[in-house]
């Protein structure tokens, strides 16, 4: 088995397991806090979604793009030093944790302002509950940053498994805490009647899970082969060079978060009236399930390899791996998209309280799914820019995407009825992602010349030709089950079983059609699945 194959299998197996446990986590949370409000005082799920999203938003601004786009190539370069990069990583960890701690303290103090910014259209009761949640959730910022910083260092050193597997601990802690909440307090839809104990259990559980997730990585630190110590002498770390690279990445993440702020602020107007912040959040989690399992599993090892090709001046090898990554991602993602579309109603029922709210949720999810393939392919292209230590160009096409996201969200707010607001905003984001992909292709071609993706394009066409009838077959199974038994969206257990049957039927037809078309990528995909299951 090749090194990239082993790494991909480890990451994919860990990501798949973490996403399955994460799915259970979110099902339990949706049972505790109903996603779509059905009463005038509903919206507790929206309040928690906004509060729990705050540390993610702040973390993304200060470090997410920096870690993913800048740190890995720098650590790979530092590995050539006599000490193997230990001094560089010591300085990097000290600087990173210090900055994260200071930012976390500032965020907690500024919690009332953050709640106003992201939930300005919430009612007074919902705003008060959001603030109470925020005080418990914002400390997650420090531990999110530690998790990402430690994980990216391990990835850069070729230790891919722990970063992918540690979220499982977070999910287990959260599942236990949310079950305890339901047992103690029952289902809570309304934003009124919350006690400090109730807030502490639900939000404290979320934060405890993130702490555990970061702590697990420390158990695997020896595998990195680095000897680190606190080092506050940051001179010589190359901050000026990193700053130039990270400056564009920082701006890129900022514009993305500002677009997200517009979305969250506007869609919160629909809280207590239908699909709102929580519905969009859960739909995005479903959308990200195949993206995380497939794209991140394949793309993470390839990113390290692309960086190595650039560092050693091998453009042909880079193009070959770019083509291979696109093909491998494509064959899996088209199948996943077909299965999700076919089973969209049972999937939606898992996170909602009944068939009617499931249909509302399904429209939001469908709007996001429009961009599943474009976003998947754009991920590989963006990492290719990062491998060249070019963060300016990704900023350019992300700026265009952010402007489109914000403008389409404003248009949806002004034009659509409140019950369709979440659908319109999600669809606007998907259209913006399609434009972003087109720009990324054009700009990367200008940078490195022909991309060598002709084979990948032909492969994607084959996948789509097989995926469309496979989705139709799965949809037919869905209609048959609904007509004969009528139970696929009546209860959550039935929806889980029905969705699994529909998805499996879709994938079986997809694989058979690929075999009929003699898709050469099918053998690669089968071997990849075997490696994942073996892990």
What does this structure look like?
This protein is mainly α. The protein is 80% helix and 0% strand. The protein is built from 20 helices and no strands. The protein starts with a helix and ends with a helix.
In total, how many beta strands?
0
| Rounded average pLDDT | 83
Contiguous helical run count: 20
How large is the radius of gyration? 23 Å
Instruction: Give the proportion of residues in helices.
Output: over 70%
Uncertain regions spanning at least 5 consecutive residues: none
Biggest sheet features: none
Sequence of secondary-structure elements: HHHHHHHHHHHHHHHHHHHH
Q: Structural class of the secondary structure composition? A: mainly alpha
Core attributes:
0% strand, mainly alpha, 20 helices, globular, 535 residues, single chain
Structure at a glance:
With 535 residues, the protein is mainly alpha-helical. The chain has helices at residues 3-32, 44-78, 86-109, 111-118, 124-137, 140-156, 161-165, 167-185, 196-218, 239-267, 277-311, 315-342, 344-350, 355-369, 372-387, 392-415, 421-448, 454-484, 492-516, 521-534. The two termini are 12 Å apart.
């Amino acid at each position: 088995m090749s090194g990239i194959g082993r790494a991909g299998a480890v990451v994919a197996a860990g990501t798949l397991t973490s996403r399955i446990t994460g799915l259970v986590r979110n099902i339990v949370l949706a049972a505790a806090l109903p996603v779509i409000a059905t009463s005038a005082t509903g919206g507790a799920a929206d309040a928690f979604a906004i509060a729990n999203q705050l540390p993610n938003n702040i973390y993304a601004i200060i470090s997410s793009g920096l870690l993913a786009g800048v740190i890995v190539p720098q650590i790979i370069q530092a590995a050539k030093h006599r000490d193997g990069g230990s001094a560089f990583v010591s300085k990097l960890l000290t600087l990173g944790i210090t900055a994260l701690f200071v930012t976390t303290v500032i965020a907690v103090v500024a919690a009332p302002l953050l709640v106003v910014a992201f939930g300005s259209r919430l009612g007074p009761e919902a705003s008060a509950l959001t603030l109470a949640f925020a005080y418990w959730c914002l400390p997650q910022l420090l531990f999110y940053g530690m998790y990402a910083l430690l994980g990216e260092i391990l990835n850069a050193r070729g230790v891919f498994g722990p970063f992918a597997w540690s979220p499982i601990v977070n999910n287990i802690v959260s599942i236990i805490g949310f079950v305890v909440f339901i047992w103690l307090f029952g289902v809570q839809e309304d934003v009124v009647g919350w006690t400090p104990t109730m807030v502490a259990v639900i939000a404290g559980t979320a934060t405890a899970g993130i702490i555990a997730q970061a702590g697990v990585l420390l158990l695997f630190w020896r595998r990195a082969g680095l000897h680190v110590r606190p080092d506050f002498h940051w001179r010589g770390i190359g901050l000026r060079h990193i700053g130039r690279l990270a400056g564009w990445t920082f701006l890129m993440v900022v514009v993305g978060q500002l677009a997200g702020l517009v979305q969250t602020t506007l869609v919160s107007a629909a809280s207590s009236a239908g699909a709102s912040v929580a519905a969009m959040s859960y739909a995005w989690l479903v959308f990200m399930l195949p993206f995380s399992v497939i794209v991140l599993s394949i793309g993470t090892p390839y990113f390290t390899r692309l960086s190595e090709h650039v560092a050693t001046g091998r453009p042909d090898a880079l193009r070959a791996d770019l083509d291979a990554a696109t093909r491998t991602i494509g064959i899996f993602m088209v199948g996943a998209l077909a299965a999700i579309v076919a089973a969209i109603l049972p999937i939606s029922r898992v996170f909602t309280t009944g068939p009617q709210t499931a249909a509302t949720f399904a429209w939001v999810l469908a709007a996001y799914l429009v961009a599943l393939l474009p976003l998947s392919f754009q991920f590989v292209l963006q990492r290719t820019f990062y491998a060249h230590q070019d963060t300016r160009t990704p900023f350019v096409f992300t700026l265009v995407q952010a402007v489109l996201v914000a403008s389409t969200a404003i248009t949806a707010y002004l034009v659509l009825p409140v019950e369709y607001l979440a659908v319109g905003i999600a669809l606007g984001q998907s259209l913006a992602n399609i434009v972003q992909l087109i720009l990324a292709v054009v700009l990367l071609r200008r940078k490195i010349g022909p991309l060598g993706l002709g084979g990948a394009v032909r492969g994607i066409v084959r996948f789509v030709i097989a995926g469309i009838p496979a989705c139709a077959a799965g949809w037919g199974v869905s209609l048959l089950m609904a007509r004969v038994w009528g139970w696929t969206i009546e209860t959550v257990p039935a929806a889980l079983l029905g969705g699994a049957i529909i998805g499996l039927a879709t994938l079986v037809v997809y694989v058979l059609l690929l075999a009929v078309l003699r898709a050469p990528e099918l053998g690669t995909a089968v071997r990849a699945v075997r490696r994942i299951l073996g892990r």
